[in-house]
Amino acid sequence: MLEKLCASVIAVVLIGGIVPSLAHAQEANTLTAQEKAQGWQLLFNGKNFDGWHSYLQKSPGKDWRIDDGAIMLERSRTGDEKDFADLVTDAEYSNFDLKLEWKMTPCADSGVMFYVHESPKYRETYETGPEMQIADLVCTKPDSQVLYERSGDLFDLMSSDVERVHEAGNWNQFEIIADHGHIQFFQNGHKVIDTYFWNDDWRKLITRTKFAQWPDFGTFKTGHISLQGTEDKGDLPIRLWFRNIKLRQL
């Protein structure tokens, strides 16, 4: 009798707990009915590079590919920079809520930039677009050991007091909210940056950094979203993955 009771309890747990959770697990690179109603749109469909190209190029460089439902970069420390040039969205955005997931091999380094102005006048995305930094807490040097250059930081400008990044090989969640100059970063559900662009404090902050050499940095109020591929740090081969890239215009 006791064995039958235990078996019944286990069955209830499996049916009532685990099975529903699996049934309601959202498939990668999809939107729920609620997200669609809220105005979210996918920037990556999980199958191809529709909506993306490498900076100042017509299509993605050859080091970028689709791997198991994710945008993947695999590169060495050398080669033609066009092959691993930063990806940018075809479209530009002004006020938005952006969410995505990323993971990397140990010691890799990257970032998500926004308000990137694409023009031959600027050789790199970071000459115009601020960056939410991606860095391995354990071994990326010097970034993981330097304030303002850790994962989740507003690169070289503002740093969170606590780094909330997972160990290499695990997925991390980024969210960037840009609402009429009010900028918020969230890493794995924790707010890590809360600031304002384009005011006197913002301009003074830039003058104290390397970005002062690029007079148009952080001035554009509309621009492309970018995934950085030009960093050569990390164990070889250097690999980065991005998925569940979605945006809601505000």
TrEMBL record:
Please give the Pfam families that the UniProt record associates with this protein.
Answer: 3keto-disac_hyd
Residue limits of the 3-keto-alpha-glucoside-1,2-lyase/3-keto-2-hydroxy-glucal hydratase domain? 39-248
Quick check: keyword Ribonucleoprotein in the entry?
A: no
Single GO term (MF) = hydrolase activity
Signal peptide span per the entry? 1-25
Where would you find the membrane-spanning parts of this chain? none
Query: What name does the UniProt record give this protein?
Result: DUF1080 domain-containing protein
Q: Does the keyword Protein biosynthesis apply?
A: no
Q: Which UniProt keywords apply?
A: Signal
InterPro entries of this UniProt entry?
AL/BT2_dom (IPR010496)
